[in-house]
Amino acid sequence: MAEIIDQFKIPTEEEKHRAWRDFRVNYLLPHGKEWFSGPYMPMEVLPPKENWEANSTRRLSRKDIQKASTKIKRFVERRLESDLNVFEHTAPIAFAHGTGVNDELDGSESKAPVSFLVPNQFVPRGIEPKPVEDLTPDERQVLTQYQMKCEVMQSLAKWKRIMLARLGVDVGEGIYCASTSIRKGYKGDVTHSVIADQWDYEIRISEEERNVETLKKYVRIIWKIITDAEDYILREYPDILLPGHPTSDIRLPKEITFLTSEELHAKYPKMDVHERETAAVREYGAIFIIGMGWPMKDGSAPEEVRAPAYDDWNMNGDIMVLHPLTGYRHELSSMGIRVDSKSIVAQLKHRGMEDKMELPFNSAVTNNELPLSYGGGIGISRLLMLLLRTCHIGEVQCGLWHDEHFRQVSGEVGIDLIPDRIIGCLNWKEVKPHAGAPKEASEPQ
Asked: Which ranges constitute the DSSP H helices of 85-136?
């Protein structure tokens, strides 16, 4: 181990990061220390150097990036409403703890939601309440009787289904929300942020529609919206593309390829999850992976671990595409037919979570008190990063990034992160030159 660490003293960046990879493979992973971070982000996670100049933020001004982002969002929202027969609904930013409504993501403690306490007590302005330890038992009982333990929303997967029941929507009708959540368990990098913004949508379906063909039908509708959005924004802002650069000829395929997780596993048996997903999108351009949650038939780990109480693991999946600049898999959307009274029991049992069966939401599913539905989310910033062809999600989203990350991606790399604060290593007041005006603005069709 000491020998490997000493290699980090080698001055060249290439040797430094080769040593880091060796250290991770030979020591960290075998000892169950995947969490160890080492350098903030290995340089190989960045887009290849030859693609840095193709980053649209080198040609579009910061104003253009914001205006183009707004155009894409308006385009997609109008198409969601018309093509999916959904209407916009207000969205919560937090839930009461212990109801089972929040998204557990992969169900691990590291991905648990941000929690906080709402005291629900009146304190006059400018007055500091007595510390809890200084209160008498009677005072403590009075002041804490209405407090609420709450948690920041991670997704609206379950809540939307409750709203379908509340609204009394018909089969084939649904809602969507533009939601923003905090997911503290994710480490920020080129495509990951602790701030997750997405279009959350949910549609009521019938018992007969609980099948993979229904899932595919909706995937194709979503995919048509995405490819049409690409055509639209490239007409509006042609300077997104760098003429003559190899990536300027890359477009999303008009048809998406469906692969089951088993087929993907069999096609690339010697690769890990991200490697085989990258290999697939390099071959097909865009894929939808069906079946996320159950282990593989050979006993190996599932394509992705999923929480057991919202998607049916036999009828869910992700849209993955090839990002032209990063050159690797770019997840845009996760969706699925939702659990019914049978699948939720099987999935909770598989995860050893039978104790969660009595949570109000889970109980409502098992008692058939909620409508059957299909739903999912489309990552807003992920889609903007793809369609605007930026090298980093932080160029289209105001995320939370460590100072070291700002230093790592600025300078020669030229990534223009939107800061949440004044950063000493950045010329944050610099006004970028405007490389070319967009075509005359027009309303999306």
From this structure: none
CA distance 314 to 312: 5
Q: CB 138: neighbour CB atoms within 10 A?
A: 8
Query: How many helices (H) and strands (E) would you count in the chain?
Result: 12, 11
In DSSP terms, which residues pair with 321 in a beta bridge? 286, 330
User: How many angstroms from the chain centroid is the CA of residue 13?
Assistant: 30
Q: What is the C-alpha separation between 377 and 202, in angstroms, rounded?
A: 9
Strands (E), 328-421: 329-338, 373-379
Residue 208, token pair as written in the block? 């007969």
The catalytic residues are 103, 183, 198, 318, 331, 334
C-alpha span between 85 and 78 (Å, rounded): 10
Q: What is the pLDDT of residues 114-169, one digit of tens each?
A: 999 998 888 778 877 778 788 888 888 888 889 999 999 998 999 999 999 999 99
Query: 87: which strand partners?
Result: 175
The tens digit of pLDDT for each residue in 202-244 reads: 999 999 999 999 999 999 999 999 999 999 999 999 999 999 9
Burial class (CB in 10 A: 0-12, 13-18, 19+), 188: buried
